[in-house]
């Protein structure tokens, strides 16, 4: 059965200046009436190059406890590499529909990879104003090139992000004509892994643990990196629709590369407010697994995305997740008679299944 994509719906909706009823959110969700327009808190901005280790731990810990989201600057990933990633993502969604459909996630596939529209079940049967493309980008054993678009031609190479330095031998199969692209990918790989490792180390220290304990708890070097490109077409009624409904992220952390069109909203102090971010910053979301491991000290941020009437919005989150068989629960060092475990211990794949299908955890 053919799946209707939001890009196609948007083209017709813009002509008719209305949207189908299944995209109209209920009263308590509509951004036009639920977005707070008074003074709003700013997302914490953290300089990841700060040489004062104690200060860096303090800032990341405070942001993770109070917000569950923060932005990092001076993260070490060159702007031109990020621009290249954004460019090929935009080019994919500009392809003819039949080309995009060649990479559609098969029904009942049991994985997230590929091009698609609907991800999670919605109790009210509503739809989100977004299409997406998922690709595993690391470690190499998790990559399935069947879901990596052949067009634009640079996609397969510009998104080879997480081939870590100790997997460099696998990159030698690329032709010499791609050497400059390979260098850019290796640089990005090294930098992104460095960002994630540094975040996990500081989060671990903020819990009073050794610096490596949190990384080991989420899978160590087996940590999986899943890229999702979100494409939010223009919408004639952005006051009624949502790009993504309110949710927390399932993995350990999410590293988000946004574009210049605002739309990320965060729920704090009983209000939805627009997240304003610094150009070229990376947005870091604390995910469910870090909240669980910290026994609730760190908060998985509740957020949603809005859409725009004039401009297409896109985002490039990389979900950093434990392997499916990894058992996740409150760390024993953080559990006591005075602070009992607040969450169940289970395999990450079981947590994922329950969350996607709206089942109790």
Automatic annotation (TrEMBL):
Pfam families attached to this UniProt entry: 2OG-FeII_Oxy, DIOX_N
Similarity remark: Belongs to the iron/ascorbate-dependent oxidoreductase family.
GO biological process per UniProt: flavonoid biosynthetic process; pigment biosynthetic process
Name the UniProt record assigns to this protein: Fe2OG dioxygenase domain-containing protein
Provenance organism: Tetracentron sinense
Cofactor(s) the record lists: L-ascorbate
Alphabetic keyword roster: Dioxygenase, Flavonoid biosynthesis, Iron, Metal-binding, Oxidoreductase, Vitamin C
MF (Gene Ontology): dioxygenase activity; L-ascorbic acid binding; metal ion binding
């Amino acid at each position: 059965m053919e799946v209707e994509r939001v890009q196609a719906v948007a083209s017709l909706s813009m002509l008719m200046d209305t949207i189908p009823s299944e995209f109209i959110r209920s009263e308590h969700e509509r951004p036009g009436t639920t977005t707070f327009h008074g003074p709003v808190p700013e997302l914490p901005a953290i300089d990841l190059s700060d040489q004062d280790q104690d200060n860096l731990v303090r800032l990341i810990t405070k942001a993770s406890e109070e917000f569950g989201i923060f932005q990092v600057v001076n993260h070490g990933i060159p702007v031109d590499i990020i621009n290249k990633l954004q460019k090929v993502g935009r080019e994919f969604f500009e392809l003819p529909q039949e080309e995009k459909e060649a990479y559609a996630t098969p029904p009942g596939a049991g994985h997230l990879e590929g091009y698609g529209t609907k991800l999670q079940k919605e109790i009210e049967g509503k739809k989100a104003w977004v299409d997406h493309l998922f690709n595993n980008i690391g470690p190499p054993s998790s990559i399935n090139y069947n879901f990596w678009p052949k067009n634009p031609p640079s996609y397969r190479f510009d998104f080879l992000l997480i081939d870590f330095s100790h997997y460099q031998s696998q990159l030698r199969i690329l032709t010499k004509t791609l050497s400059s692209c390979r260098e850019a990918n290796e640089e990005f790989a090294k930098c992104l892994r460095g960002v994630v490792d540094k975040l996990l180390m500081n989060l671990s220290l903020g819990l009073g643990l050794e610096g490596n304990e949190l990384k080991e708890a989420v899978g160590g070097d087996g940590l999986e990196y899943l890229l999702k490109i979100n494409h939010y077409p223009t919408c004639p009624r952005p006051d009624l629709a949502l790009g993504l409904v309110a949710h927390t992220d399932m993995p350990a952390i999410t590293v988000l590369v946004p574009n210049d069109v605002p739309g990320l909203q965060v729920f704090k102090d009983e209000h939805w407010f627009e997240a304003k971010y610094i150009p070229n910053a990376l947005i870091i979301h604390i995910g469910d697994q870090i909240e669980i491991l910290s026994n609730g000290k760190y908060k998985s941020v509740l957020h949603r995305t809005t859409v725009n009437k004039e401009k297409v919005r896109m985002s490039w989150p990389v979900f950093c997740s434990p392997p499916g068989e990894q058992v996740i629960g409150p760390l024993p060092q953080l559990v006591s008679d005075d602070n009992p475990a607040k969450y169940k211990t289970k395999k990450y794949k079981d947590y994922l299944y329950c969350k996607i299908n709206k089942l109790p955890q």
